[in-house]
Amino acid sequence: MQAMKRLSLLLTSLLVLTACTEGQGNENSSSSASSVSSVSSASSVSSSPLPNPSPSPSPPRPTPYTLRLSVPFSPQAPFANWDALHEEACEEMSLILVHHYHAGTKLTKEQAETELQALIAWEGAHGYPQDVTVQELGQIAEQYFGYRSRVIADPTADDLKRLLADGHPVIIPAAGRDLGNPYFSGEGPWYHMLVLTGYNDFFFVTNDVGTKRGESYTYRFDVLMNAIHDWTGVKENIRSGARRVLVIE
What is the CATH number of the domain that holds 201? Predict the structure, then answer.
């Protein structure tokens, strides 16, 4: 009888031990399955494609050390007839020079005079005053020649060099007496326009229509930059004019 009890206790202990071992095995299996699942998830995340980075903007091209655009030249008085009409024709002649640059055509004295007279007559018929701002000259370029125009406010010397390097002559409105051009009559005009055509190490190169000696005439960087002033409506107040320039395209 006692032997039977001991056998029964032994069997019970074996059953309890088996149950514990199975429970631990299930936990280990769950833990292993969880680890496999985590690894699988991590592999899935790491295998996802990364977004493409945005391309970096290209740096601006360096401007050449020296540059000169082949802009035709004529003074605003092609035949040296400095009457009242020609004295006030710097805006129109500057525009005509840039037009012939874009057209790739030469400009004779006869052409310059004929085109100047026609443009001034057209301006009068369309209500433009004798002196115009760069904004108004841009409108004339659009309406008369069919170009597009851009007015650039507060340009730096580097801005002007970049425009030239991109192939754009620049029409400059100026306080004429601040240019100090010795070939101007007297002190020079209160208000003036000229065409910027290039630059070198120390100077801007211009086609200054205010003198027959104006082809490739050079001004120091600081002189030209300080003289930039748009028309104010009163010539004596030109030095208070906004710093704006004009590009015709």
Answer: 3.90.70.10
